[in-house]
Structure prediction request, 211 residues.
Amino acid sequence: MPQNPIIESFMKAGPVLPVMVIPSIEMALPLADALMAGGIYALEITLRTSCALEAIALIAKERPKAIVGAGTILTPRDAENAAKAGAKFGVSPGLTEVLAKQDAICLLPGVATASEVMQALEWGYNYLKFFPAVAAGGVAALKGIGGPIPQAKFCPTGGIDAGNAAAFLALDNVLCVGGSWVAPLQAMEEGAWDEITRISKLAVDSLAPKN
Prediction:
């Protein structure tokens, strides 16, 4: 499915797209509530756990203000399953021709090089995930790509944390960053939802563009 305003809207919904790995379905709603209380409404739930699709369906149904997406989309079947569960968008670590041509869900595909960016543009994708961001060259690499290919806009993910997020967001071709630091596993396991809200609010307040 070609990209549409959903991708742009969630990338501009806030400075941080949380990369959520949900170990158990009981954590799904409390985690979503904690993130939204901190000002984060676009939620990427990765398909890395057995309850991921169930979590997507539950949050999409019970928390209509959330913009729920599915991460770790690797195949068209993943995209179909995520869409059926209620995901509004999908995020993939890379991009193949088969995945680019799937029509089940709006996709934010991963790229790591200028050649991959050019290929994605040919397939109709100008909103992209830069992954793995730090390992692939970080801020310098994205700045370099932005010179000759300014039409590509990014959500860098992979190695992003509170310490380097601002440097990425300062780039003209970066709309948001993806990271798991706003939803740490230890806090989830301890049920420290107030702590996740605190971290999320701090991220939003410190990283949001200043008028």
